[in-house]
């Protein structure tokens, strides 16, 4: 997948294809089939979201982050429904198996009309101490992303990313000053 290599997948599309794909992204999923241009735009949008989020938790202490206006509600509902879910390293089966989907569906639907684009696809890191990579990423709904990442932030799991980024930044500053 070209998105992982840092190149833009959109470079392969012409202006007309880009325009039609961008317009179609705003339509409901039922309005189009498996158009590869549309899928490419969705993948790029998900990857951009992932990059922005990772940069955010690398530069701001995640304990103080608010991802939505309803973080408190998302967190309390999440922990009420998934209190024993291990969130530092996710098991994909806890999100994707049929029994898991049956449990997640009512949770997700509670946020219809509350969280914009609650059911859009997004990328979620499996191991919260690691960055986004093909091996460490799963496709999830936006509300699943919010629920898990809000919990990771509040429970201190994402501090590993922040602390690592701060240490790397300090080391770079020290090496620059010693030159």
UniProtKB/TrEMBL annotation:
InterPro entries: PBDC1-like_dom_sf, PBDC1_metazoa/fungi, Polysacc_synth_dom. Gene3D superfamilies: yst0336 like domain (1.10.3560.10). It comes from Phascolarctos cinereus (Koala). One of its GO terms (cellular component) is cytoplasm. It comes from the Eukaryota. The lineage of its organism: Eukaryota, Metazoa, Chordata, Craniata, Vertebrata. Residues 38-162 form the Polysaccharide biosynthesis domain. The gene is PBDC1. Pfam families: PBDC1. This is Protein PBDC1.
